[in-house]
Amino acid sequence: MENDSAFTPLAEQGVIQLREHETRSAPAADLSAELGEAIWKQYSKEVSIDFPSPRTGQRWRLTAGGSVGYLPLGEGVGISLQPKVELDNLFRMLEWAHSANFRVLDGVMGCQSLEEFFARIANILAKRVSDRARRGLYRKYVACAETLPYVRGSLDMRRIATRPWEVRLHCRFDEHIADVQDNQILAWALYRASRNAACTGEARANVRQAFKVLRGVVGVAPVRVNDCLGRSYDRLNADYAPMHALCRFILESSGPTHDLGGHAMLPFVIDMPNLFERFVGEWLRAHLPRGLKVRTQNTIWRSETCGATFVPDLLLLNSQSGEPVAVLDTKYKAPNQGPAASDIEQVVAYSTALRCRDAYLIYPRELNRPLEDRVGDVMVRSATFSLAGDLDVAGAGLLDQLRLVGAVGQ
Length: 410
What we know:
The chain is α+β, with helices and mostly antiparallel strands and about 400 residues long.
C-alpha cells in the first residue's frame, strides 16, 4: 500500500513516520540526498528506499519492512516505524516472548509511542538496579591467586618452593566480589540504553545514574543476549530474574555496538516476525491441552554433504512418547492470494522429514483464501492467531483451528 505524501512533508518535526509493510512516497525536496544515503547504508534491512529517478517519477519511496521502532539519523531526523498491531497488544506480546519474568508492563500501558515505551522500560530497569545497589549488589565468592606481602588464604607452596628468592608470598583465596556476570548484564544493558535515541528525559538521567553506580564496581564489556537466558536464581538473587528479562529486551532491540564511548545513537528496533514466532510459541506452551508440549527452533534434519538444516519454528509433540503431532510455522504477513508456494513447500519438507501428517502456517490475521490441502501424505492448513482484540481469545481460537482433539492418543 502506498501513501502519497504530496501535501505532507516526509519528515514532520524531525521524524519520518512509516507503518510496517507500507510505502510512503514524497517529492525529492522533502529529503536530502545525504539522509537518503544514510537510510540506505544504515537501515536497508528495516527500510527499503528508492531514490528519485525517472522510474519513481522523481520522488522518494520508502517502504517499511517487518520491524517497528525508532531509527536515528543525522541532522536531527529519525524514522519512526509504527506497528499495525495496537500498542497494548504489542506490549503483551513482548511480555509473553520475554517469559513470565517480564510482567512489568502494567506501568507502561499508557504509552502513546514505541519510543516512550522503550524509555519507560529503561527507566524501570534503572530504578530497580539503583534500588538493588542501595541494598547491596549480588556477590559471589571467586577463586583468586595473587602475590602479596602478607598471607591471605592459603600459600601456593609449589610456587614458593620453586622461587625461594621471592620475598612476596603467592596466595590463593576466595574473594566476595560484585563483578560477576549477573551484574555485568545489568551494566551492559544500561550502557546500551543510555545510547539509545528512544531513551530521553528522566529515563536517560536515571539510566546514566544507575550505570555510574555499577561502573564503579562492575567491569563493563559486551554481553550477549543469550547470557540473559537460562540463568539460575536463588533467594539471594531472585529479584535479578525480572531485571535480566528487561536487559534481554533492551539488548535485543538496540542496534549493534562493541565499543564504549562515542556519541553515536543506537536504534530501537523490534523484529516483528521473530516476536510473533516467539509469542505464539510461549502462549501455546502455557495453554496446550494436557499431554502435548511445544518445542521451538529445533533442528530436525541436517545435510551431511552441504550442512543445510531444517529448523521449523514450532513443533507440537506428544509429551509422553515424544512423537511429533504437528509442524507449525509462523508467517508474520497476510498475503491476499493465500499462502505462498514456497511457504507450503517449507512445512511439507519439515513434516516429511519428521514423518508427521499435519502442518500449519500461522498468520496474524485471517486470510482471504485460507488453505486446506493435502500434499502427498501431509495435510497442510492455514491458521490464525489474530493480533487484534483480546489475545487470549485469539489464542483459544487458534487451539480450535489446530484440531488437537485426540492428538494425545496418536
